[in-house]
Amino acid sequence: MNIKVHRICVLVFLTTSIVSIFNIVFAQSLEARIDSLVLTEFNERDGPGGVFMVAQHGKAVYQKAFGKANLELDVDLTPDHVFQLGSMTKQFTAVAILMLEEQGKLKVSDPVLKYIPDYPSGDKITIHQLLTHTSGIKDFTKMKSLSSISQQEMTPKMMVDFFKNEPVDFAPGAKFEYNNSGYILLGYIIELVSGDTYESFIRNYIFEKIGMTQSYYATDRRVINRRAYGYHKKEYGYVNKTVINFSVPFSSGSLMSTAGDMLKWQNALTKNQLLGVESTKKTFSKYRLNSGEEFTYGYGWHIRETNGTPVREHGGSIFGFKTMGVYIPDEDIYVIGLSNCDCHSPTQLTRDIAALAQRMLKRRR
């Protein structure tokens, strides 16, 4: 080997070594700073905790669990544990509706009356308004009589009948107000149009299609590997979550998943594996009320800006669990936070982690 070639080889080796050392140091720095943020809230080793993941360009750059998955059995949480998603379920319901629209089986501009002929004022409420929380129908979670059905097995029609005759809160399209009933109606429409159950449709056309092997329609009876158990916190300590029948939250909040599977979900959306470009654009667009005022919700996601940067996000809350997902399209950064105690909200923490990751990952470039 001549001297010139030798020098080139040495230079390549040194450059590669420096880059490797830099990446290791950077990863350690990112991990330490995220750990520091998480431990401000999730700092009880023997209590319920959470799982947090940061990914960029489809790959996890941080993934860690804190606390216990099961207090009775003293089982530590791992990044692979399965959590109830709560209202993050709405993302899947919205995408399922758009998949059916692409198949020509419905249009988001269709009135509810087209699919549920006996729905009050169903000629004035559209699927679009259900998706965007602008329908004005009564949110069943605010009804005092909810406790009377919370542990009953309810069909989608029974759920719709439970709230359909309640007085509306406002005229369709007049206002944005977060609404779970709208997403119950969407799940019912999915079943009517597809001829399949909501559970089966989500499993067959989303979970199985993109390899979400640890994601489920929630159940307290089925044995689910690596299930994280949910808890409440009382003055005297932790107690097991309140038991409900998952047919009640249905398509507004009854799915379960892991951080890893939720990354597969985000990657599938980014790569248009489930929806075409135009449908994806619909999902992540802002819309306007009848007055022309713009509001910051698309189809199943809040569409916001943080310090001038576009952000898509959505959280969830259901007995014993709280969740949050944040996606920064410009940097292709996805952050997910999952908690198995409704005493610990990952909402602001996940946003803070996303902002930190954005700053640090930008700097690395």
Describe what you observe in this structure.
This is CubicO group peptidase, beta-lactamase class C family. The chain has 365 residues and is α+β, with helices and mostly antiparallel strands. The protein has one domain (39-364): DD-peptidase/beta-lactamase superfamily (Beta-lactamase), CATH 3.40.710. Helices cover 34% and strands 19% of the residues. The protein has a six-stranded antiparallel sheet, with helices on both faces. Strand 12 and strand 13 (309-318) form a beta hairpin. Helix 2 packs parallel to helix 5 and helix 4 runs antiparallel to helix 5 (180-194). It is globular and about 75 Å long. Residues 9-26 have low confidence and may be disordered.
Question: What's the topology here?
Answer:
Layout lengths: L2 H36 L11 E7 L2 E8 L1 E3 L4 E2 L6 E2 L4 H14 L24 H5 L24 H8 L16 H15 L3 H10 L8 E2 L13 E4 L2 E4 L14 E3 L1 H12 L6 H7 L3 E2 L5 E2 L6 E5 L2 E10 L2 E8 L4 E7 L7 H18 L1
Antiparallel strand pairs: 1-2, 1-15, 3-4, 5-9, 6-9, 7-8, 10-11, 12-13, 13-14, 14-15
